[in-house]
Amino acid sequence: MDAKLKGSPSFIWRSLWSSLGLLKEGLVQTPINTLDIETKVGALIDEDSNSWKIDLVETIFKEEEAKLICSIPISRSGASDRRIWASLERGNFSIKSAYFLETKLSNRSSGEPSTGGGNNSMWKDLWQLEVPAKAKLLIWKCLSNIRPTKDSLLRENIVESNLCPVCAREKETKVHVLWVCPAVADVWGGETSLFRKWKRFYPDFQQLWGEMTGKLNQESIELVVVLFYHIWARRNAYTFQTQFKNRATIVALAQADLSLLKEINLNSSNRAARSRGRGPSQSW
To answer: How confident is the model at residue 108 (pLDDT cuts 50, 70, 90)?
Structure first.
């Protein structure tokens, strides 16, 4: 739990390390050992009465901490101390509960969750876009503030710098990666681009997304979403593999994704129409 991210760690280790903050938030410790290195929690418990040594606890800990400690029920079976996952009553960790905890923590600062509240229409519009699921998921993570960046990782003491790994000039935020970074200027600033005259700076990704959905038609938004996905994928490829795709490749990949998905959806619709046209099968 106290490991440091040093040197040039592998992608797998970086991924595991990025979840430590979430684990620390969800885990709780049965009475914490703050005494001598060899002292156990049992030193704070009266074995005869099977209760806390209140005077000792109040001497060692602050008043509020002492009250919390003494409110912890003591096991009658003599079970050993262990860490438990506080998000579930049974204390066992699960991926599902970690997901809900991460979403809850993110929504402390980002507003309503995607399952309710005033943003229902925004989430509904997002999920109905005809783009690959991987692209919609990226937008959802960015809007929910759960897409890690160098800036957010620095605040969690996971990395030592929040500078963008591509331009190395400004702190890496979501809106920087997808819109502000000089490396994406050619994607959005081309002569035929809809965004050539748009302002460059937005305080956060949520405001940029809100302006886009307010001004663009669905077809343009779908192209933007897939471009966002490939811009972020290019950022990852450069960060971990020092590979960098040019503007033409990014645009071509986005257009290919959209064309393939439309073809798949069209074929599915045609098969469904033919199936309805044949009607129910007859039995003899």
So the answer is: low
Classify residue 200: in a domain, yes or no: yes
118 contact partners, CB below 8 Å, separation of at least 6: 111, 112
- Residues 235-254: tens digit of each pLDDT: 999 998 999 999 999 999 99
Distance (Å, rounded) from C-alpha 175 to C-alpha 104?
22
What pLDDT, in 10s, does the model give residues 5-45?
666 776 676 667 677 777 666 665 554 445 666 777 788 88
117 and 59 in contact (C-beta within 8 Å)?
A: no
- DSSP states of 92-130 as a string? ---HHHHHHHHHHHHHHHH-S-TTSSTTHHHHHHHHTSS
Strands 51-52 and 27-29: unpaired
The answer to whether residue 230 sits within a structural domain is: yes
| Structural contact between residues 82 and 92, judged by C-beta atoms closer than 8 angstroms | no
Residue 228 domain-assigned (yes or no): yes
The answer to whether 226 touches 132, Cβ cutoff 8 Å, is yes
